[in-house]
Design brief:
Helix content is 70%, strand content 1%. The protein is mostly helical. It has a single domain (12-379), classed as Formate dehydrogenase/DMSO reductase fold.
Length: 389
């Protein structure tokens, strides 16, 4: 009998090697940032939360930057990215994964790009008239031949943009909710098979997206030496706190249900949490990534701190939140593959460094949206002229 390193108990050969790597962890993480950033932008456009207006355009550009990168982890994991076009040429309507291509195109081409273009159209026309050299031709191309920026035309832009934003809210839910739907529909895996999975994915997406925009807004103000709008930052953090509470409650509800039900898989899952996933789930996800940021955000709601202290606490809570949501994605994707379907064996996941599905490529995929966002911000400035620090 041969022993396989990292494997305890009995596992079938196809269970020893994990089929989904860190790239599949990144995929729901990045799409969650897209959905959360768009939901934050909709607060100002649809729900008239004027306090978050300074981040409205920044949130839209952040969603676009991450959305452009969202399919790349899947493409890199596929190995033959040209095969992905088959989903458009031979659509498979009964496959949730295949339908992602159509959801992605709908959200990118119809919702996000249309809303950004309508909101920026007057600025693009002005830049096309004032810019020189190659940039002038770029902005002229972005006008799509529409140079009319009269008050009547702008009212039409605002009305159509509002409608697109309303349509975009359920579209953002669909974009990320289907990822949770895929995991939750895998009945053969006790870690994933729960009807709460899509809902937990949705709320965790809103949490991570709101936290990401808050951090990017704070960083952009620091880099450009601009005064941060503390009223805006306070409002974003308050919504982050409320949504995070709902997300945490849903996860605890799912945990309590599993403990109460205590079916044949419970002993195996409990062993996983106490051993292989203890650091990633108990320490990173629950303690550092959930309880601590919630405590910090809640403390700010109860006590009065100076603007500088609040800003530092927001940044700390934001980074801890991002780490916690990533740990949650890791525990779902990787953790769900570390035990056998018979609950008789366990394996480990070895993360390589310089490999196609390794740590280096994953870091590059996370930095790429920030580079794209930098280009978008230079091309389409998201903020109004404000007093420098």
């Amino acid at each position: 009998m041969h022993t396989i390193p990292g494997v305890e108990g009995f596992m079938y050969p196809n269970e020893v090697e994990l089929q989904w790597s860190i790239l599949i962890v990144l995929y729901p993480y990045i799409t969650g940032l897209v959905a959360g950033a768009f939901i934050l932008a909709s607060l100002e456009r649809v729900f008239q939360v004027s306090a978050v207006k300074p981040t409205y355009r920044l949130a839209l550009l952040t969603a676009l930057a991450f959305l452009l990168v969202a399919p790349l982890p899947l493409q890199l994991h596929l190995g033959h990215p040209e095969r992905s076009f088959e989903m458009y040429l031979t659509p498979h309507r009964s496959s949730a994964m295949a339908m992602f291509g159509f959801v992605y195109l709908w959200y990118l081409m119809v919702v996000l790009l249309a809303e950004i273009w309508l909101d920026y159209r007057a600025d693009i026309v002005a830049l096309a008239q004032s810019s020189k050299g190659a940039l002038r031709w770029v902005y002229k191309a972005l006008t799509l031949g529409s140079m009319n920026v009269s008050p009547a035309a702008r009212r039409v832009d605002d009305r159509v943009g509002y409608i697109i934003t309303v349509i975009g809210i359920p579209s953002a839910f669909l974009l990320h909710g289907y990822v949770g739907f895929i995991f939750g529909s895998v009945k053969a895996n006790a870690w994933w098979s729960t009807p709460l999975m899509p809902i937990v994915f949705l709320f965790s997406a809103m949490v991570s997206g709101i936290a990401a925009v808050m951090l990017i807004y704070d960083a952009s103000c620091r880099l450009q030496k601009r005064l941060v709008d503390m009223r805006c930052l306070d409002t974003i953090a308050r919504y982050l706190f409320y949504v995070f509470l709902i997300d945490f409650s849903l996860e605890m509800l799912d945990l309590i249900h599993r403990i109460y039900e205590a079916d044949e898989s419970f002993r195996s899952l409990d062993f996983m949490v106490q051993t292989r996933l203890f650091t990633s789930q108990v320490v990173l996800q629950i303690l550092l990534g959930t309880c601590l940021p919630l405590a910090l955000l809640g403390l700010i709601q109860l006590r009065r701190f100076s603007g500088t202290v609040r800003r530092r606490l927001y940044v700390t809570a934001g980074w801890l939140t991002m780490i916690g949501i990533f740990a949650m994605r890791w525990n779902v994707v990787i953790g769900g593959q570390l035990f056998s379907k018979s609950y008789l064996g366990y394996t480990t996941y070895k993360l390589e460094f310089a490999a196609r599905e390794g740590l280096l490529s994953s870091i590059g995929l996370m930095l790429l949206p920030l580079g794209i966002l930098w280009v978008l911000v230079k091309l389409l400035p998201p903020w109004e002229e404000r007093q420098a620090m």
